[in-house]
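During the reporting period the student researcher (J.K.) took over the structure-prediction task from the postdoctoral fellow and processed the backlog of single-chain submissions. One of the processed entries is reproduced below for the supervisory committee.
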Amino acid sequence: MAMLPFADRHRPVLLGHRGLPKVADGNTRASFQAAIEAGLDGIETDVQRTKDGVLVIHHDFVVGLRLIADMTFDELKEQRPEILSLQELLELLEPHENFLINLELKSIPGMEDGRAHELADAVAGWPGRGRVWISSYDPVALLKVREHRPEIPLAYLFRVYDTGRMAELLGLEAVHPEFRLLTEERVARWHKKGLAVGTWTVNEAEVARRVAAMGADVLMGDDAEVLKQAR
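J.K. obtained the following structure tokens:
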């Protein structure tokens, strides 16, 4: 199995969800900079692909009334001037040598435009690749990354309880369940299977303390001070 970049870190690891959207619009340069300045361990963010093959940082599949996959990068910039390419994000974070990055590959099952392989290659070719892992709701996309670049650690995202069987079948390193799915017994079960547990979106101090006490390895949220309550 690949090595998760937080394997030797104190737990829980705290990630800004799309940066710190409590400070600046999520998935923007300002939001990511805010997460750095707040002293978080890293960020979680979303990767899409434009029609002309540019990997970009954006959550929703649609901008305006159009799929990002059907827009060129220039067309997307006209609609969202603040949008970053993945390359620009990696350039921003490269000087911060201990800052972790969880890239969520936004993929619709059945979608085939090369994004899984292209993201894997972009990560593998980056000097800071040892502090990145990729997550997705799409098991086929994760399988494509695993077959293409087996050294990249991967996590399976889900909103409906999964025993960890999907992650086991795919040979993944982590599960990323929504925080309401966590119980102490479930976290223990996932850990017994050798899976790290990252959870989202933790935006209340009581929730941060509770899921940390259950043994969650990674907490993702919008507010740095809330996340820090986990410690």
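The committee noted the following: The mean pLDDT is 97.
J.K. will present the remaining backlog at the next meeting.
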